[in-house]
Amino acid sequence: MIQTPEAAPPPSAAPQSESVLGPLAQIPPGEGRDFLVAGRSVAVFHLRGGAVYATQSACPHRQGPLADGLLGGTTIVCPFHAWKFDLKTGTPLLGTCGITTYPVRLTETGDLVLTLTNEPQQPAEGGECPGPGFNLFSKDEAGGRPLPATGS
Ligand code: FES
């Protein structure tokens, strides 16, 4: 009897996983915080108007801590050399390389839920990025602050 291979699954979107990061209240309005999510360092920003955004933690220029940057509207300015990024898209507004953004939402009870994707980072034209999975911090620290551990 001849065995035929099983049909390959249909192409689909990049794999995703959701992680609950805890209450939004742990991030004061107008600030960002780093989280370690499934081995990836992610910066989550709580805008003064209540909106939340998430990006890679490390600036693609020289790995500055974006969570410690200056928030203004929906932009973040890196605290090291002032590269500026759009939090909605990751587009560089000042600098040559974009950042990875992640979908983040709030539950009815005010918890942050982050969706990780495995899509590759797309550098801006002419720029070079370290790529996805790049982590600035060890698993135990982020600029002197503990990184909240989350599920995978
Ligand atoms: S490290 Fe962010 S602008 Fe240089």
From TrEMBL:
Annotated stretches, region: Disordered: 1-25, 121-152
UniProt key word Iron: yes
Family annotation (PROSITE patterns): RIESKE
Pfam family, one: Rieske
UniProt entry keywords in alphabetical sequence: 2Fe-2S, Iron, Iron-sulfur, Metal-binding
Annotated GO MF terms: 2 iron, 2 sulfur cluster binding; metal ion binding; monooxygenase activity; oxidoreductase activity, acting on paired donors, with incorporation or reduction of molecular oxygen
Annotated Rieske domain residues: 19-113
Listed name of the protein: Rieske domain-containing protein
Organism annotation: uncultured Armatimonadetes bacterium
